[in-house]
Amino acid sequence: MSSTPPIEPLRRQTPAPPVRIVHLGLGNFHRAHQAWYTAHAGDAAQWGIAAFTGRRPDAAERLNRQDGLYTLLVRGADGDHPEVVTSLSRAYAATDHEQFLDLLRRSEVAVVTLTVTEAAYLLGPDGGLDVDRPEVRADADALRADPTAPVTTVPGRLAAGLAARRAAGAGPITVLSCDNLAHNGAVTAAVVTRFADLLDPGVRGWVQENVEFASSMVDRITPATTEEVVERVAELTGRHDESPVPTEPFSEWVVAGEFAAGRPDWESAGAVFVEDVTAHEQRKLWLLNGSHSLLAYAGGLLGHRTIADAVADPRCRSWVEEFWDEACRHLPFPDGDLRGYREALLDRYANPGVRHLLAQIAAGGSLKLPLRVVPALRAERAADRLPRGCATAVAAWIGHLRGEGTPVDDPAAEPAVAAATSADPVRDVLSLLDPGLGDDGDLVDLVSSRLRDLAPGNA
Ligand SMILES: NC(=O)c1ccc[n+]([C@@H]2O[C@H](COP(=O)([O-])OP(=O)(O)OC[C@H]3O[C@@H](n4cnc5c(N)ncnc54)[C@H](O)[C@@H]3O)[C@@H](O)[C@H]2O)c1
Ligand SMILES: O=P(O)(O)OC[C@@H](O)[C@@H](O)[C@H](O)[C@H](O)CO
Predict the structure, then answer these.
(1) Domain at 433, CATH number
(2) Which has the least CB within 10 A, 170, 211, 420, 421?
(3) Same domain, yes or no, for 113 and 198?
(4) Gap from CA of 29 to ligand 1 centroid (Å)
């Protein structure tokens, strides 16, 4: 008689590694990327991660119920491969601020990593910390009254943690951003030092002398977890994992910066250390994230739901190729490298196991387009060319902002929605992206014609 094997919970058989890394933003990407590299480093037994969620305390509770363990479900052309990742020693809610301060006071804690989304850096129009935001002012007031007061913003939490480290004499530390953001190390340094300055010039001076802000280009397509993923993991492993993470086989991590207090031997897991990540960052943000945004908005207008569906549509595929041709002219890599990179992206996008929803990628467009599409658009106009691929991305975003295609999920969307629904939408949206672009009559005409082409029934 056959019987179904019992579903076991996921539990550690050996102690978790000692915490020496603190992470903010315990989402799926951190667990598919930095936590995986840490678990695969040659010295993994010495490097545990304490990770804080952003807004979901239940995510920490689920992980702690299984001792920080979780299954990474690597979905490739050759099938699904489950792997238990062991580097997450403990998960905490974002509100557990006392625990965060306590960890930063420990000299053995050597690295703070971040995956908190672009929005959490709270950048203002000048590219630095927006000190006029109420939440920044509230955090600064609270910390001036009591340096251990609970605070909510990422720059405020980091400044408070570093002030606590300084007071404890715990020595230098490295903060490493792993967000999709151009110059992510410099941006993190700018917002944290500016926040420290609001508190006490002594803290700012200590941060400048003792804290390294490293940069990194991160890449691994990691969608959200669905019930199908939970069921597939149970089927493959015979264990019940409340919090598995689906991802693709490809992974890349290029890092630049100093780690005065040490770091895991991430190279042994495949990370690459370079002097300057800028070119890698641009290539990835423009070619991958830029084409993702194009597919998210244009594919949504055509009724597609996932990247694999959208890129299989010859119309979307040709717009992506146009956009890549334009962006590649401004990337400092040999043509052959860029060709290979593009081919690899098409393979990755076509992966049927990675159901990456356009709606997830479309979120937060008003912060994403300026970094992912506008640089190539500006560079093409400076070279006196009219970039049809970039124009298609902007036109598709306008359609999305008008409520066609994927729903708008963007806390900063109000001015963009107002522009997209104005009497002169193309000029107003281009001006919002870059004032110079709105005055460019030829570009306005091109985006307008792409918008007409994308209208329901025309595409
Ligand atoms: N998913 C990917 O394929 C991928 C790949 C490369 C880089 N990234 C980077 O990682 C980031 C997170 O992606 P994800 O897929 O893990 O998303 P996710 O939604 O699974 O997790 C996001 C994490 O950031 C936290 N967060 C969000 N807003 C925050 C805020 N204001 N303050 C503090 N924490 C906040 C969330 O609570 C959560 O812990 C992305 O924004 C991107 O910059 C993601
Ligand atoms: O994660 P976001 O929201 O910054 O961007 C959406 C996707 O483009 C992104 O998650 C990519 O899949 C990822 O950057 C691949 O490494």
Answers:
(1) 1.10.1040.10
(2) 421
(3) yes
(4) 7
